[in-house]
Amino acid sequence: xxxxxxxxxxxxYFFLPYSVPVPGFTRMVLSLWTMSMxxxxxxxxxxxxxxxxxxxTARDLGSSPQLDEADLIDRNDEQQFLxxxxxxxxxxxxxxxxxxxxxxSQVLKGKLLKDFFTATILDETIVQILDTFMSMGSPHxxxxxxxxxxxxxxxxVSQSSSSGYSDLPHATKLEQLMGExxxxxxxxxxxxxxxxxxxxxxxxxxxxISSQCGESTLLSGMPLAxxxxxxxxxxxxxxxxxxxxxxxxxxxxxxEVEQFFTLLYSSTPFL
Length: 271
Hints:
It is a single chain. The chain is mainly α and about 270 residues long. The chain has twelve helices and two strands; from the N terminus they run ααααβαααααβααα. It has helices at about 1-10, 20-60, 75-85, 85-110, 120-135, 145, 165-185, 190-215, 215-220, 225-235, 245-250, 255-265, and strands spanning about 115, 220-225. It has a two-stranded antiparallel sheet with strand order 1-2. Helix 4 (about 85-110) packs across helix 5 (about 120-135) and helix 5 packs antiparallel against helix 8. The longest helix is centred in the first third of the chain and has 41 residues, at about 20-60. The chain is elongated, with a radius of gyration of 21 Å. The two termini are about 25 Å apart.
């Protein structure tokens, strides 16, 4: 998460020459989406890996026969698997920016700087941009921003290991972990979690924007030209503390999210 936020803060945005509102809205929605999705993705990784390690340890310490080498997850497997959390910032971000910008420009097409935006209109606009973005291309196209189609083409960690295991068990175990992760991301249940998380963050975002603009001012409406500086400001703040921690904590506090990850840790319900 920290690596991605640093990239988003430093990376220049080569926006296409659309109308003026597009860059500000794009950055804000992009920050909101990446913060939400990366938080959920890392939790999926941690719970899948934690379950495998727990089962392996329990079997090793119990009366069951010791696991075969191919069933074990060693340090090298862990590092390679967890390194995929940086795939978005290292590889997926350019396409993500372009697609978010395309969705934003589609929703904001025809909007003028003199148009009045109320809190309701702004909320509906943000939700519409997110919905448009998530429905672009093939179903679950967004998974490609977070992880590669083939785990073998992406290696952030050296393949070498001091464990003495052959390369085949490493590749097989890594592929198993990545396969389980992809299955979770493609599940209907995870789709529901995404929807809940984004809705929660949009509500929190609206509170922050209303606070900056003045709640009564935004309720009655203000020209888009006056709203844009607030949009740009909040887009930057989302990537920094304490905003980032507060937004991520809001996701973690959703009861359905907690229940989802409890189930994920205790079983393999999506395979």
